Amino acid sequence: MARQLGERFGISECFSELAKMLQAVSPDVVHITTPPQGHFCLAQQCLDSASHVYLEKPFTVTAQEADSLIQLAESRGLKLTAGHNSQFTHEMLEMRRLTELGFFGGKPVHLESHFSYDLGDSSYVGPLLGSRTHWVRRLPGKLLHNIISHGIAKLAEFLDDDLTEIVARADQSPRLRSLGGEEILDELRVLIRDNSGTTAFFCFSTKMKPGLHQFRICGPRNSIVVDLSSGSLIRSENRSYKSYLTYFVPPLKNAREHLRSAQRNIVNFLGRKLYQDYGMTELISRFYESIRLSAPPPIPYREILLTAQIMDEIFAQIYGTSSTDTDQRDWASAYNLPGR
User: What is the pTM of this model?
Assistant: First the structure.
């Protein structure tokens, strides 16, 4: 497959072993898009060979691995980033611009992140359910582990490092049960509170229809809802209206916000900037720019690590303590990589 892709894009050298590639080519940047069990050992090899690393989500299997890689990168003067491309869509960039302008009036009071998944995609769910040794089922968080970092990362951007409470509850949907999901959980609800009092709610669901991909930020003055499904950003300003105006003016202002989003999307579409992978393109471009200019990476390491820590706690609560050392050693052995 690598040779076929190389011929298609005029790439002369293809490798099936990482060590040989690093020695022969000495790449400036390596993109690691393997199953997560290989992320730590592969990234470690790349950093030791002086390559910057782009790691697909989830960044690593555990927060301990994430912390080790970040420390190694900083000690080598290299950069890392996580494949949280949904953080860089048009609407998320607009949300961040408004945040910098002080739209919320202070630190957010409450956050909500909703993420949905459709079990109808048989190309992914079929192999997962058909094999108990599928790599997704060998993750501590199984199906959830491979998906929820997108939604958790949005919360981590606004939460303090010091979290005082995480409460996670998970269940299995009737649909997954009918497909023979066995131990796999696909309905997740999480409550979080940080040391400054900001609360957060995360919801992952395969049952909700239509699927919900939203991020809500409630500030002490104003609030925002980002709808990633429609590429919309809806601002809600703190205004009071007399008498019956409260039934007319807010809906009209809300309609204006939707119209503004539609107009922005039309402009981006005509400018060829509205496509599914725009967030990934933007993230990769910013990562490369941070390398060229020796600037901070597009996703702060604090957020990458906090996302991993929250996920660790979620999976510990819903699945109990899971040892991944055997899986990690098996993976390293299979690919002749250094173990942990």
Answer: 0.90
